Amino acid sequence: MKTIKVSLQKNSYNIVIGYDIINLLGKYVRKLNIGCDAYILTNAVIKNKYGRLLAKALTRHGISAKFKLIPDSEKSKSLETASSLINDLARYDKKRRIFIIAFGGGVIGDLAGFVSSIYKRGIPYIQIPTTLLAQVDSSIGGKTAVDLAQGKNLVGTFYQPRLVFSDVRFLFSLDLTQTKSGLAEIIKYALIKDKALFKYLEKNYRDALALKYPALEFIVKRCADIKAGIIQQDEKEEKGIRTILNFGHTIGHAIEAAGNYRVYNHGQAVALGMIAASHISSRLGLISGELTQRIEILIKTIGLPVKINELALSDIIKAHYRDKKFTGKANKFILLKSIGRTKIVTNVPLGIIKEALKKRLLSCRL
Amino acid sequence: MKTIKVSLQKNSYNIVIGYDIINLLGKYVRKLNIGCDAYILTNAVIKNKYGRLLAKALTRHGISAKFKLIPDSEKSKSLETASSLINDLARYDKKRRIFIIAFGGGVIGDLAGFVSSIYKRGIPYIQIPTTLLAQVDSSIGGKTAVDLAQGKNLVGTFYQPRLVFSDVRFLFSLDLTQTKSGLAEIIKYALIKDKALFKYLEKNYRDALALKYPALEFIVKRCADIKAGIIQQDEKEEKGIRTILNFGHTIGHAIEAAGNYRVYNHGQAVALGMIAASHISSRLGLISGELTQRIEILIKTIGLPVKINELALSDIIKAHYRDKKFTGKANKFILLKSIGRTKIVTNVPLGIIKEALKKRLLSCRL
To answer: Best of A34, A36, A118, A320 to disrupt the B interface by mutation (most B CBs within 10 Å)?
Structure first.
């Protein structure tokens, strides 16, 4: 078991990572003194599998557990769902102190965080991530969000959880698609901050794909550590530090959006986005072609896509212009200087972006 | 013209107060560098009266002005309206940098602030309050909110504006009810912080009611100064300092709610709440009966209610228990030690609250 502190003055909190630690949760909640009624946002699958376990961990310490199910789909990340949850929460919130638990993956975490941040101008919430992607990435850092028709995550707040409780035991029931999605973000951490992790993945990717316990725990801890380190330097993405977490996401988001979030999932889109960013880095002389290939090989070996088959270049470019971060006329790319080191480049010529997408992706051969 | 700085580190901003200063707005916006497309939330009456003036002040400095009308009613402060505004905003938000202007009273300010705080995790907004209540109170301090069926302001954020621009010229078209509503909050400031202001009101209330320019400007400046001083010590109401701004509001909110927000408006309810709080203060030996009477006389002279005619005691008590701040079993009252000094008292016996409401209000004779 490991505890990583995210130091953000008044908004500081711990990330607790371990195997089969859920039974310790009640003690942690008691110590935080955040309330005695848990309103648990989750989906039916997670509740069936682990609901009783979670409820017991809480009620044993005098904390009531009320489950609220939402469909496990990006569609749940809407203002309508948030609104209906808040009304339900207000009806349930009677006399005691209420707090929220996000028990699930990224969708549930983003939505629960958003609801927590605006109900009564902020009530406490806890992240209990159950997917690899959520454990290494979305549960940490306080970015809450819902989507609009115009784009993903267009509505939200910066609102830190009071605790992130990552029990790697929950990962053992993940399917291969979810595991790969998580691995895409893990490769991202390696590329922006940790060459040793990149080498570890090259050697041990089979263990990760097979959900082997020590590999998973090592990876989750390492990524949480990296993310915590970045967040505490730039909580609200104002200093250009947190922005490196968007490596692969500029093009990745455009690919997701161009396919209407149906053709490629987030992990797949980020994998493709990282390949594009690597190619742009190489084209601008920041890294060698060999390095680009080494990155592609790891992504391909893990079973993530390296080729865009079903989208038109023009649709990706169009979606790219609608990006939340795209204000004014300048684009902004997080590029690589080596494995583990980044460089932010603005105004990458459109021709080079198109080239990276067209030559290297739409007709990519490895 | 006067500028009051609200010092909140990164969230600091100025309150600019003056007569006929709206034409200077464009320069201020330019200097803040917050964007070049203004999305102006207002109502039809304000737009008809002052819309062209505001648009000119902006366009002259290269800032586009898009007006969005919402009905001038507490009903507009809903999650549904917020949601529809955000969708409209996202459709309008194309390539340039957008910011929001709240151009109206408290409803528009609370709603515009809330929308600004959650769209793209926060975009800049400016308060241009047009009512007395908004100029002295709701436009300052960054409390944003919408209502739920379960209660007022149950959803919201702490999100500071980038500028509060109070042109007292806008006050000259207020009707008497709106003026009195503002005066209720002004009496509140005097009671909690400023004996000199209380004496000023006793002498000059006629000038204020008649919307005379120097009186209004003096009062708006004084109250803004008091509120800024309180906010900068306790931005998010965590230290028990900001809470004194709720003087008269504990019972006031209950009176508003018990009448379904139709029997008494906010100012009237706060006036009644302040009388109740004064009686409780006197009953607990904090102030004399004479002082209580002096407070009642000012409130009555201004034309605010000192008697509750149309509500049942039990409904007020019931509504009081539903208060947002009422967590756990203890109630919390801001009481007076003298004019200008407060004391926070928890666990005021229900009997004393009922007594203050029953004997002194439901059958009050002055």
So the answer is: A118
